[in-house]
Input
Amino acid sequence: MGQTFAEKVLARKAGLEAVTPGQIVTVRPDRLLTHDNTADISQKFHRIGVQRVADPTMSVIVLDHVTPAASETYAANHKLIREFVAEQGIAAFYDVGEGICHQVLPEQGHAWPGAVIVGSDSHTPTYGAFGAFAAGIGRTEAAAVMATGQIWLRVPESIKIRIHGTLPPHVTAKDVILHVIGDLRADGAAYCSVEFTGETVRALSIAGRMTLTNMAAEMGAKNAVVEPDATTRAWLAGRVTHPYAEIHADPDATYSRVVEYDVSDLAPQIAKPHTVDNVVPVTEVVGTQIDQCLIGTCTNGRLEDLRAAADILRGRHIASSVRLLVLPASRAILLEALAEGIISDLVASGATLLNPGCGPCLGAHQGCMAPGEVTLSTANRNFKGRMGSKEAFIYLGSPATVAASALAGVISDPREA
Amino acid sequence: MKTKITGRVWKYGDDVNTDVIFAGKYTYSISDPAEMAQHALEDLDPTFTQRVHPGDIIVAGKNWGCGSSREQAVICLKQAGVAAIVARSFARIYFRNCINHALPIVTCDAVDGVESGEELTIDFAAGTVTTPGGVYTFPPFSPEVLEILEDGGLIPHARKQLGIKE
Output
């Protein structure tokens, strides 16, 4: 009987011939991601009572959530993490300024086809864009993985999402995934492994694929994957230097659900406050007043995202009523964007450039909102209170939509910018 | 783990996310569980922290705990005295975080049979939730999950696995 991606990868990792959904397997992950929460995780690790992590090469630690430290408390946490990294001999440590974990891991060769990656961050499924099995876990669980080197995982049911059609101009992977989440809802893929397939997905760049797998978390997915192909291999060349064995789902695998979309006529999409599945075509909200725009985050802070924004903003200026914040997802992307002149274009148009990192996405610093304010963001979450005041409003859209809206000071259709 | 608990109900709806259970702005600045409890459900129900009693039970619709992986969204409720959470369904990471902190979690439709302020009883051995509006059944935990719950959470469980004694 054919097997899905998740069944194959978990069977291989567990040393079993085959596994079935619902079965619990114990595996040694290839990588364990932790970020600023490593401070707390290291204390939980010590509470377990072991001195050394089971495998220092398993851990990848990235400081990204509140970087540079916004207060003494954050600074003390970062210091604790640096001490833990030195004490445990963890080589894969990326300090303030390197970028967002979900961008830095792949750039540094820590995500590859067939890898099993767990991370103490809910957007860990992002690495499925490289054909990895990647799932989020909590802090205590990350501490236990450090101590024991292993984790139990329930073999998930799988959903296949097949996407057809050529995307119209100014319509992007972000619009596709917002449309899918709006249709399947916030728990539409709960506990499931999502396989994105179809000619539209094949035609997407790595950046676009990462936007899909990143936001699969917003419909409850355990992991999400895009089958590795020539695009994947070309991107990984020079980044992943060890051999790896790709895992592809069997054509006769069993899915709990197969969903098909044709995106040939898709309009730019917007998620309205306060849930990610509250999705409408941009045309329904055009004219909505906004105070702040955000281009960046682990969803849309990559070079092609910044380029799409710059293409709209070049030689023009944002509305005087709006603040535009731009955060490249990593130092590498910032350097590329600088070399291409994108950053000059954005800053000249009125954007405020922030350092690579998570920035204001989680409401801890660098652009929190006052009561009654509205942000239009390329991020992945618009929950009440997420970016400061619980009386503020967050809309989500693509980089092109955010750029077009920053020019007008109201939500705007990028096809008309 | 107690085999049977009875408690007063706090009832909430569908898709309650971790940001309204425990706001992101506190996730790297508050580390004391008692202080976490003071912010529990802050952006969803401002009356909760003043009126919650030890032993109370949260009852909710589908997808409780969606969003972030932050386990403070479990710890703050446990520390506030919540004895169990009963929901139509749970977000996956939230489910694991509850098990890892030995906060009993029950998946069933009890939300249809009870209102805030009323009482319900969870019988873990029988796999039933008894509400004023009816009795709901739930499937048993898998042996792996039950063992973590009975060990008192993942840290004691990991200590046992690794053979660490006091």
In short: The CA atoms of residues 12 and 18 of chain A lie 8 Å apart. Chain A has a mean pLDDT of 97. Chain A touches chain B through 51 residues (CB under 8 Å). The first strand of chain A starts at residue 24 and ends at 27.
